[in-house]
Design the sequence.
C-alpha cells in the first residue's frame, strides 16, 4: 500500500532529513535566543513594571513571543520581487494590553524598519537582536485595545533552527518557500512569535505577473494590473505565527470543493506535478478519514503547496495549506493534514510539548496504514520496539526533549506515536478514539499541555495512567516492557 511504501522510503516526519551541510552553521540569532531568561535573571529584573517582557518565557526559546499583550489580528501587506529578492511590507497588528505598557516588543529578525505607529501616532522604536522594542507616544492602559503599524523592507534572510535546518523566508529558484517552525515567522513579518498567542490573519501579497503567492485560509481575490498580481488571503480562525506562509513561485493551481464541502486550493511546482499527483489526489479522502477519527475539520479551507525546494529537507503543516519541499508521498500528506487538528487547531503551550504535535501526526500515519491494508499500529509499534537500546529512538524521553535542537527528533515522533499506541491498548479503542476527539474539541483554536492530555485520558477511561505515561513520556532509555 502507498503509505506502507512511504514509510520505507521516508520517515514521514515533518523533518525528513537535514543536509549535513547545514549542521554547524548555526546563525547567531539562535545563540541569542538560547540564552536562558528567567524571571530571576538580570535581563528580566531590569525590565520595569510597565515594560512588556521580551519573551513568553518558553524554556527552549525564552525570547520567542512577548509579554504584556495579546494579538487579535494581523494584516500583512507584502510585495515581493523574486528577481531582486526585495520584500516590502506593511504590517498592521491589533492587540490588547494585559498590563500597563510604556514599552512592548515584537519579534523581527533582519529587514529594515522604516516606521512604527501605535494608534496612528508615530512611536519610538529600537532593534535589540530579534526584539523590535516599541515605545508608544502614550502609555497603554491594562485592558486597552491598540493598533500597531510597522512599515519595513529588505532582503529577508532565513533563520537557522537549533537542529541546523533552515526556516522562515527561504529563497528558491523561482520565489520563496516560507515555513516558520519554530522561529521563522519573524524573518518576514513582525510577530508575537510564540504559539501561545494566536490570531486571525489577512494577507495582501503582490508579485510580478506569472508568479503565484499562496498564504493561509481562503483566497478572496486575485487581480493583475500593470504587470503585477495581488493575491488576497483570509485566515479567519486563530493561527500561531509559525504556521503562516506566503510561499511564492510559478505554480499550477487547482481549486475544488470536496464532496463533504471543504474548499481545496493546491499550488504545485510543475517540476513536482507528476510525482505529487497520486498523493494530492488523496486529499479529499484523507480529510474525510481524519474528520471521522478526530472530529470536524477545523478550518474553512484546505489544500497543499508543493514547491521545488530540494535543499529544505522537510514538509510543514502550514495552517490550512501544508507546504512540501518536493512531491510528497501519501504518508506525508496524512501526517501534515493530521496536524491541522493536532498542532494547528490545538497548539502546544510550550515547545517542550512538541510530541503533542508530532507524536499525534505520526500516529495518524500508523492508523492510515492500519486501515488501508498495511501493518497494524501494533505491528508498527513492535518494529520500533525491536530497535536496540542504543538506538537514537531512545535518546531522550518523549515529553522532555531537553533542548530545542531535539524537538524534531525520533523520540518525539516515533516514541510519541508509540506512547499513543500504549494508551490505546491500555484503554481500548472506544475510549482511545473518544480521547482523541475530545482533545481536538476541547482545545480547538487554543493550546494544550501534556498534563492536560494525561488528565483527559484518565478522565475518559476512568483509569490511573500515571505509570504508563511516566514510563513512555518521562523516563529516559528504552522501556523494559513493550
Ligand atoms: Zn509533523
Sequence:
Amino acid at each position: 500500500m502507498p503509505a506502507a511504501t512511504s514509510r520505507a522510503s521516508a520517515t514521514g516526519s515533518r523533518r525528513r532529513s537535514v543536509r549535513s551541510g547545514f549542521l554547524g552553521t548555526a546563525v547567531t540569532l539562535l545563540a541569542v535566543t538560547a540564552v536562558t531568561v528567567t524571571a530571576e535573571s538580570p535581563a528580566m529584573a531590569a525590565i520595569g513594571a510597565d515594560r512588556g517582557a521580551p519573551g513568553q518565557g518558553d524554556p527552549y526559546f525564552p525570547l520567542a513571543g512577548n509579554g504584556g499583550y495579546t494579538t487579535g489580528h494581523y494584516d500583512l501587506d507584502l510585495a515581493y520581487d523574486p528577481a531582486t529578492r526585495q520584500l516590502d511590507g506593511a504590517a498592521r497588528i491589533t492587540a490588547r494590553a494585559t498590563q500597563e505598557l510604556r514599552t512592548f516588543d515584537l519579534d523581527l529578525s533582519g529587514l529594515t524598519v522604516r516606521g512604527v505607529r501605535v494608534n496612528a501616532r508615530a512611536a519610538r522604536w529600537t532593534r535589540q537582536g530579534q526584539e523590535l522594542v516599541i515605545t508608544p507616544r502614550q502609555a497603554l492602559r491594562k485592558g486597552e485595545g491598540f493598533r500597531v503599524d510597522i512599515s519595513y523592507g529588505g532582503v529577508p534572510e532565513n533563520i537557522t533552527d537549533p537542529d541546523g535546518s533552515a526556516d522562515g523566508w527561504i529563497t528558491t529558484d523561482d520565489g520563496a518557500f516560507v515555513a516558520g517552525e519554530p522561529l521563522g515567522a519573524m524573518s518576514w513579518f513582525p510577530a508575537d512569535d510564540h504559539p501561545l498567542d494566536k490570531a486571525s490573519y489577512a494577507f495582501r501579497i503582490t508579485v510580478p505577473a506569472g508568479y503565484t503567492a499562496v498564504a493561509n485560509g481562503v483566497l478572496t481575490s486575485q487581480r493583475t494590473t500593470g504587470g503585477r498580481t495581488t493575491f488576497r488571503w483570509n485566515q479567519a480562525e486563530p493561527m500561531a505565527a509559525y504556521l503562516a506562509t506566503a510561499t511564492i513561485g510559478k505554480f499550477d493551481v487547482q481549486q475544488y470543493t470536496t464532496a463533504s464541502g471543504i474548499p481545496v486550493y493546491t499550488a504545485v511546482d510543475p517540476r513536482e506535478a507528476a510525482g505529487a499527483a497520486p498523493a494530492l489526489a488523496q486529499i479529499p479522502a484523507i480529510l474525510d478519514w481524519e474528520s471521522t477519527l478526530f472530529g470536524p475539520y477545523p478550518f474553512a479551507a484546505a489544500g497543499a503547496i508543493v514547491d521545488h525546494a530540494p535543499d529544505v529537507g522537510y514538509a510543514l503543516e502550514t495552517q490550512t495549506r501544508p507546504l512540501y519541499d518536493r512531491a510528497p508521498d501519501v504518508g506525508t500528506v496524512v501526517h501534515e493534514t493530521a496536524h491541522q487538528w493536532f498542532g494547528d487547531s490545538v497548539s502546544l503551550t510550550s515547545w517542550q510539548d512538541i510530541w503533542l504535535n508530532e507524536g499525534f501526526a505520526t500516529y495518524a500515519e500508523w492508523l492510515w496504514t492500519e486501515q488501508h491494508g498495511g501493518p497494524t499500529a501494533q505491528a508498527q509499534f513492535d518494529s520500533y520496539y525491536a530497535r536496540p537500546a542504543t538506538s537514537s529512538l531512545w535518546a531522550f524521553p518523549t515529553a522532555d526533549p531537553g533542548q530545542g535542537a531535539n524537538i524534531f527528533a525520533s523520540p518525539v515522533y516515533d516514541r510519541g506515536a508509540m506512547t499513543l499506541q500504549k494508551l490505546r491498548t491500555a484503554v481500548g479503542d472506544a475510549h482511545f478514539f473518544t480521547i482523541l476527539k475530545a482533545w481536538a474539541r476541547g482545545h480547538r483554536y487554543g493550546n494544550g499541555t501534556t498534563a492536560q492530555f494525561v488528565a483527559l485520558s484518565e478522565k475518559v477511561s476512568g483509569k490511573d495512567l500515571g505509570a504508563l505515561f511516566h514510563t513512555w513520556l518521562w523516563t529516559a532509555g528504552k522501556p523494559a516492557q513493550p
